[in-house]
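Question (not urgent): is this output format expected?
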Amino acid sequence: MAPKINLYSSLACSDYYSEQSHLGIPGPLPGGAYPVIEIGQQNPDCHLPEIQARAAKLALAVNLCTGMISAITTGKYGALSDRRGRRLVILIALCGTMLNDIIIILMAKYWRVLGLEFFLVGALLDGVFGSFTTTAAATNAYVADCTNPEKRAISFAYIQSVFFLGIAIGPVIGGVLITRTGSVVTLFYCALAVHISFAFFILFLIPESVTPEHMEVARRKSQIRRMSADGVVYHRRQWQYWAMFLNIFQPLEVFWPQGRGRTFRRKRQNLVILGIVDGILLLNIGAYAVILLYPIYMFNWGDLEVPLHVLSDVFLCGLLTLD
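Got this back:
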């Protein structure tokens, strides 16, 4: 996260000074010269409120684009994982992640040609392919398929603890890598290589957790949902088919299971509360990019300092999750 934020800041800084130059405004250096901005590195001349505001808006636009689109697609991919398997959905989400990695690498090198708005293309592709939310949902579903009900909670706890430890340790390794190589692009090459390796791992080594019988049952239920009142399945050429396919609210039915009685009322109430709480918690993760801009701006933190300060908190969170 920190290297990406520094990349946003340095590119926003370069764009700011380029704009000032075109307007004929003198630069901050003696003689009205403009500073040389190192992409992805700490640049003292970029510590201006105007530049930080641009970086925050860029991070906000990227997160908003990915988050809104993935909120629509994740439910569809979740249903697809029941019909076609978890591995397929995880691979689809990885394709979006890898495309986003490629676009970030291209932006670090050719941002003047592509423009800062091209970041939104990567965010759009990441969201269309499901992004992190689809990967997390398919992973949790895979764990649920492979564990007994009495051990399922602890299995989810292990998954979450490893996730938070990765959030803490990964940026530290990335910061060290950037410090040693002197280039932030190296980190994104490594991230792309890791995602490609993970895709091959899923493709060739991980077995499918959904049984063929379960897939068949899920496909029959999906076909029933696409039937008219007369029992005729809608065809792709009919508008009703696309109206049902593009219904972004249909996955939300999971929060309102059908049934009568006190048990179902409590189940619906608990699911709605759980969804609201989970949404509030994820708001903090969504705002993390902007939150990191503050210590970077105020204390001149770099790619190594930010994860080191966050490491202890996230490590404690992971231990509490296990408890």
